Amino acid sequence: MRDGERDQPQGGATGSGRDERPGPGEAYNPGAPVQPRQAASVILLRGAGEGLELLLVRRTPHARFMGGVWVFPGGAIDSGEGDGEAAQRAAAIRELSEEAGVAIEDPAVLVRFSRWITPEEVKIRFDTHFFLAVLPAGQEPRVDGEECVDMRWCTPAQALAAHREGEIDLVFPTIKHLEQLERFATVDELLRYARGREVLPVQPKVVLEGEVARILLPGDAGY
Q1: Where are the domains of the chain?
Q2: CATH class of segment(s) 37-216
Q3: Which of 32, 74, 84, 208 is 20 to 30 A from 103, comparing alpha carbons?
Q4: What pairing do the DSSP bridges indicate for beta strands 70-71 and 126-134?
């Protein structure tokens, strides 16, 4: 972590469906949209051709933004890391090292997977670039015990089940990523799919209907 405490980006609102109130740090913004901060995140994988597990880390419950939430390692891009894709990859590698103790030497091994932009209706906003990466041989993740206090390897299905059962808290974009990743049987299959495909930004929209905040995605009715 650099430049003092920085917020953890996940790009959207919380909840397992589209009828949830925005979560901690995602207060509704009735005014002009806030400019989103550039950020990067890593979906760390293991399993190769035998299966697919991914790493989730738990943010400290004392964090002012998304405290206690389970996320993919990631964070905001620092000013010294520059602009564009090179800065996104540099930030992704730095955050993976800081939050999970995993070192990746070559930014080129990261595989671009998705881009999520926090809804305009939310006060704290990020434009987050998600990358896939395979756990380097001989390394094991470890959390720092301060910014991140726990970790787990799990399949996408296991993570979603734990969330449904109230065992772990997830934010909306993490849930949607897990639902997409659940379709792949192995890491190799996922990487074949991800390499070379065009990544288009996803920006959810929050629609207030009385006491209910509906989260819509591109293609949904009413988006």
Answers
A1: 37-216
A2: alpha beta
A3: 84
A4: unpaired
Low-confidence residues of the chain, pLDDT below 50? Answer: 1-22, 24
| CA separation for the pair 188, 186 (Å, rounded) | 5
Q: What is the DSSP letter of 6?
A: -
Contact present, 33 and 125 (Cβ < 8 Å): yes
Q: What angle do CA 95, 34, 117 make, to 5 degrees?
A: 50
Q: Is 10 left (phi over 0), alpha (psi -120 to 50) or beta?
A: alpha
Q: Three-state DSSP class for 189?
A: helix
CA angle at 27 for the pair 23 and 31, rounded to the nearest 5°: 155
CB atoms inside a 10 Å sphere around CB 167: 11
> At 75, phi and psi to the nearest 5?
180, 180
- Give the containing element (helix H, strand E) for 39: strand 37-46
In three-state secondary structure terms, 22 is coil
